[in-house]
Amino acid sequence: MGVFTTSHEQVVFCHDRQSGLRAIIAVYSTALGPALGGTRFYPYASEEDALHDVLELSRGMAYKNALAGLDLGGGKAVIWGDPDKDKSEPLLRAYGRFVQSLGGRYYTACDVGTYVQDMDVVAKETRFVTGRSESHGGAGDSSVLTAYGVFQGMRAAAEHRWGSPTLVGRRVGIAGLGKVGKHLTKHLLDDGASVVATDVSERALAWAGATYPEVDLVGSNDELIRQPLDVYAPCALGGALDDETVSVLQAKIVAGAANNQLAHPGVEKLLADRDVLYAPDYVVNSGGVIQVADEIEGFNFARAKERAGRIYDTTKQILQLAAAEGVPPAVAADRLAERRMAEVGRLRTILV
């Protein structure tokens, strides 16, 4: 994917040789306000892979923020490298300088490979950062409300599919027991669901086995999707739903925290053809961005949680619209997001 073949407003390549920083910041849209999206620190196989990821993720953030009711546009950043080996204070501060250079067009936050402590370091060089630690006046770990929002979206999908907004008695498969998957597991168990899970990290599997012995653990995602599931929750990296996965998936609902779950256009139709109800990822996983966005105006957890709870209503609206219009939920969600960006964004042309 080339930069000039997309609808992005701005793509910035950031390089600081001394610290080793290689980063890309992509601003998809500022129609609703400054772009907000996290920073992913990941060992991409190539520069092309890093660029593709940041372009896709930033577009998803614009749609996510629109449907979350935020007056914020969509952006994303990726740092190309291994966070366990390459992350350092000079690198993070150099990255903060590049964020600052955009003058507020882009607010950053945590994502895969970055944590609240990293944002505290980035904030030494820029004021356009959210997701900071509570000791620095921030919202803390955004995975808390990300998981809460996914659970609310899952409840809405369960009501649409089975007539009741609960997962009690349902078997849910979680792919990825990282920051979000851990919290989601607790929500589901507390609701009365049974959980089967997997992760590529032995440490994560060991944590799950010790903390929740009632969770069934399997060795791979391929094994997980072939389980007799009611709900499949992809909570790791994107692209989890491809042609092969959909063809063997046993679940009747897909609702998870991962971004960009559909591996390519057309997968949403494959899901519909197999009667699998897909709760669009950027709708149900928006609790995290709601949490860090609340930080911009002075963080209040109760207020942010109440806003994240509305993901249940938004998911219901999208599923009902999809059924009424005879389109997959992903298409219905896109339409609603695009409508808000166009209608509210248009108001900026009115001089005041």
TrEMBL record:
Domain Glutamate/phenylalanine/leucine/valine/L-tryptophan dehydrogenase C-terminal per the UniProt entry, residue ranges: 140-349
SUPFAM superfamilies hit by this protein: Aminoacid dehydrogenase-like, N-terminal domain, NAD(P)-binding Rossmann-fold domains
Chain residues that bind NAD(+): 176-181
InterPro entries to which the protein is assigned, alphabetical: Aminoacid_DH-like_N_sf, Glu/Leu/Phe/Val/Trp_DH, Glu/Leu/Phe/Val/Trp_DH_C, Glu/Leu/Phe/Val/Trp_DH_dimer, Glu/Leu/Phe/Val_DH_AS, Glu/Phe/Leu/Val/Trp_DH_bac/arc, NAD(P)-bd_dom_sf
Active site: 76
Swiss-Prot/TrEMBL GO biological process terms: amino acid metabolic process
Superkingdom field: Bacteria
UniProt xrefs under PROSITE patterns: GLFV_DEHYDROGENASE (PS00074)
GO molecular function: nucleotide binding; oxidoreductase activity, acting on the CH-NH2 group of donors, NAD or NADP as acceptor
Pfam families from the UniProt entry: ELFV_dehydrog, ELFV_dehydrog_N
Keywords linked to the UniProt accession: NAD, Nucleotide-binding, Oxidoreductase
Family: Belongs to the Glu/Leu/Phe/Val dehydrogenases family.
Name of the protein in question: Valine dehydrogenase
Protein's organism: Dactylosporangium sucinum
